[in-house]
Amino acid sequence: MLNDQVGHLEDMLANLRRQYAEAQSEMDKLKSDMNIMLRQLLAAEKLTSGLASEKKRWIETVAQLKRDKEKLLGHCLLASGFLNYLGPFTQEFRTR
Questions:
Q1: What are the backbone angles phi and psi of residue 10, rounded to the nearest 5°?
Q2: CA 76, 77, 82, 84: dihedral to nearest 10 degrees?
Q3: pLDDT attached to residue 12
Q4: What range(s) does the Dynein heavy chain coiled coil stalk domain occupy (predicted)?
Q5: Alpha carbon of 23 to those of 8, 37, 89: distances in Å?
Q6: What are the boundaries of each domain within the chain?
Q7: Which of 79, 80, 82, 89 could form an S-S bond across to 93 if both were Cys, CB 3.0 to 4.6 Å?
Q8: In terms of pLDDT, which residue wins out, 27 or 3?
């Protein structure tokens, strides 16, 4: 009878050790997953902050392009007048 109890307790101990090993394995896997997710979260935060600064730069670029667009007609007129003046005449003719 005592041997039966010892055998039963040894079986219970083996079962508990197996459960502990499984729980330990699961905990290690969860820790690994947590570390991966933390790295992904940090990368996402860096990307978000980087894009926020890019948004500011893009807004400034759009504003500058809008200002340049307002001057485009004048620049084109000046360029066409300059090319029209320089195009058909030689330097000698223009200096006379």
A1: -65, -40
A2: 110
A3: 95
A4: 3-95
A5: 22, 21, 92
A6: 2-95
A7: 89
A8: 27
Two tokens at 49? 């902050």
Task: Return the HEC string of 23-56.
Answer: HHHHHHHHHHHHHHHHHHHHHHHHHHHHHHHHHH
Q: Which two tokens stand for residue 92?
A: 């000698």
Tell the residue number behind the tokens 């935060």, with chain if given. 45
Q: How far apart are CA 12 and CA 68, in angstroms?
A: 82
Distance CA 86, CA 55 (A): 43
Q: Which residue do the tokens 């820790």 mark?
A: 31
* Integer Cα distance of 40 and 54 in angstroms: 21
Measured in whole angstroms, the distance separating CA 83 from the mean position of its chain's CA atoms is 47
Residue type, 46: K
